[in-house]
Write the structure tokens for this entry.
Amino acid sequence: MRIAHSNSRIKDPFLPPGPKGLPLLGSLIDYFSDMLGFLTRVSADYGDIVYYKLGSRKMYLLNNPEHIKDVLVTNNRNFEKSRALKRTKIILGEGLLTNEGEPHIKQRRTIQPVFHHERIKSYGDVMAQYASLVGEDWQNGAVVNIHKEMMKLTLNIVSKTIFDSDMESESEEIGKSLTDIVTLFPRLLFPYSEYVDNLPLPSNRRFQQAKDKLDSIICAMIEERRARPGKRKDLLSMLLEAQDEEGDGDGMSDLQVRDEALTLFLAAQESTANSLVWTWYLVSQHPEVERKMQQEIDCVLKGSQPTLDDLGKLSYTQNVFKEALRLYPPAWAVARRVKEDYEPGGYVVPAGADIFMSQYVVHRDPRLYKEPDRFIPERWNSEETKNLPRFAYFPFGGGTRRCIGEPFAWMEGVILIATIASKWKMRLVPHQKIVPQALITIRPKNGMNMILERR
């Protein structure tokens, strides 16, 4: 049971316990100086429901999987997107991630066939092919920024699968544009940050230039597909051809396709790249895990590229990836705004308040996982995890807004890990300070340098 520190909590019988914070600011400084650390601390100190304030915003952190299920599934109609996610419309427009209500339902219904299992499977060979090229310019004993390398790899895969295009010549510029967009995310969480958007700040100029760059690439491709329909079989072409067969039969406008394509582009590249980085980091710190994983890969692949038929045989490798996603989930938090008063655990969360649910926190809850901060892939074959509550593990969200590209991400992650690990080992350069940075996903702040070792 978690014990609250009575000398530092809000003393109000009608409010859940939580940090008192500062006048006017609340916990704003503590939160934005270390978001993951703050959420972890207050969860440990105050239990299943934590109340804190970010400026004038009332925040309720839910840490119980049953409460999270209630918000995301059972009573999901009583909640809407949080202010922060609505603010991301300046990046993603009215894409699937930001839209809500009936328009969101229609969009998801229209796009769902694009992610049909058979269509996703067709990209497996593309993933393995690009992964096999990763080490061509690597040298035994060389030091590489593995974050940069994985961003480049996933950019190439996303470019091919979504746009049927080779963007390697532009990868440096596109990568910089994506980083400029992603690093803006924490500012969107600040109260009143919308008033800063139009100021002549260097960060605003970088963001606009990055957005214009990505828009120009995507819009040019949309124009080419419209002019020559049926010539390609990439995801972008499928989006252009998609129709809402259960609704009015309409397709999507060019603007809607742009919003969806950018959402998929950013999510697929950013999420998978960082998930791989944290996987390499964790494996490099656990030689026994590395040895078992490589033995399995060698036995299954026998020197060949992985195919879809191999995925089911790579069970330990899948558990390695699953455990990495537990410790460093691609989506580290989910937020919702309450429409009508909501009552979890005997407290009343008033309409207009924000509810926060953190995968990063729940995945490390000692009530759910033994030795929760340890990297133990074997736990996924044990009794420990067989009876976990549904939302004890939700790296891709859940409910009606669960990530539509989750099957794509799982397949890609395992294929890339198996392909690269069949040829290379990685060792963390000593004396680095590895700091998880909570942006749209969890990135390693300042990258991550690894020493390469050819197998």
About this structure: The first helix runs from residue 28 to 33. The two ends are 46 Å apart (CA to CA). The chain has one domain: 56-454.
